[in-house]
Amino acid sequence: MRKPLLPGRHVTDSQKRLYMTHRQTHTARIAAAKSGFSGASAYRLEKDPCLPSGKAPARERRRPDPLLTIWDSEIVPMLKAAPGLRSVAIFEEMDRRYPETYMGTRRTMERRIRAWRARYGPEQEVIFRQTHEPGRMGLSDFTDMADLAITIAGQLLEHRLYHFRLVYSGFEHSHVILGGESYVALAEGLQNALWALGGAPSEHRSDSLSAAFRNLDADARKDLTTRYDALCAHYGMEPTRNNTGVAHENGSIESSHGHLKKTVEDAVLMRGSRDFCDLAAYRQFIDELAVVITPSSAPASISSGRRCSSCQDAEPSTSRRSWSPSPPPAALSCARCSTPRPRG
Asked: Pairing mode, if any, of strands 155-156 and 151-152?
């Protein structure tokens, strides 16, 4: 059982006298409890015969406050007028106004400004630490690959990568997307990722899909939303979206975009050429990298998925043309399926 915490107050002279009286007939912890402080304080007091009031007072400032004459009259008004002003800019301005007067006070000024902003500055956004569970959440996003200057038979390939990631285990899958962000691209990449994983998380999160909904009327937007919800329901996932313009809500995959691009860049440099003979060769190149960047602990998360895509009788359509991706040539199995189902 956890011991109750005592209030953080200083031990008074009367408490110590009472403790010494009880100490004659009781143990240190019992005497401390009767006196109103902890046993740790009791052992500390027994080593020091002086009363608390007889101790030396806390050390005060050793030198006069170097910012006393300018803090309230000049620095605080500057902080109120321009909240985003950097501390070093304020120091340089004070040094310009009063040459050789405030030399050596930069750190003091920075600490004072930081403390003032914590108490009187604008409110800061609060982000709570998240606790991720195995098999609970998968994330989807797109990242532009124009910086890598990939070419197909000498022609520049304008493309993006669909990027899927399991939050807990770090399993990653990427898929080459031609054109912009769309529902078809999301559905194609998501299904390929789930087939490669061999299961499905209980929750799928994407951004607001603003690029896919751009220039669409209300009926078309409603239709895309319905098809996205149906796709997630088909694989037993709960669809969720982060708020528009709040990238950190999708941070578990946004932060890994840079690592994915750097991995592709390193592989291209080791390959010695950015040119591929055809699109199929480049897609295979990206698929092979997905195995490299996925941590070894990722397969353990497959069994934690609530539903496996191999449990489904058929794949849902992802567009009005009833398109469905070609699954990789491998067998799927999960906790629900005792026997694997061959692809084909």
From this structure: antiparallel
Alpha-carbon gap, residue 213 to 168, rounded angstroms: 30
Given a cut of 50, whether residue 330 has pLDDT beyond it is no
- Summarised one tens digit per residue, pLDDT across range 248-267 is 566 667 778 888 888 889 98
pLDDT score recorded for residue 231: 87
Helix/strand/coil for 161: strand
pLDDT for res 75: 92
Q: What are the distances in angstroms from CA 309 to CA 201, 206, 237, 315?
A: 10, 19, 11, 8
Task: Report residue 160: phi and psi, to 5°.
Answer: -125, 170
Is residue 163 within 8 Å of 260, Cβ to Cβ? yes
Q: At 188, list the tokens.
A: 């194609």
Cα–Cα nearest to 285, from 109, 83, 165, 148: 148
Backbone φ and ψ for 258, nearest 5 degrees, come out as: -65, -40
Place of tokens 């009926």: 219
Q: Which residue bears the tokens 């060769």?
A: 281
How buried is residue 260: exposed, middle or buried, by Cβ count under 10 Å (0-12/13-18/19+)? buried
Three-state SS at 333 = coil
Count other Cβ atoms within 10 Å, centred on residue 132.
12
Distance separating alpha carbons of residues 322 and 39, to the nearest angstrom: 73
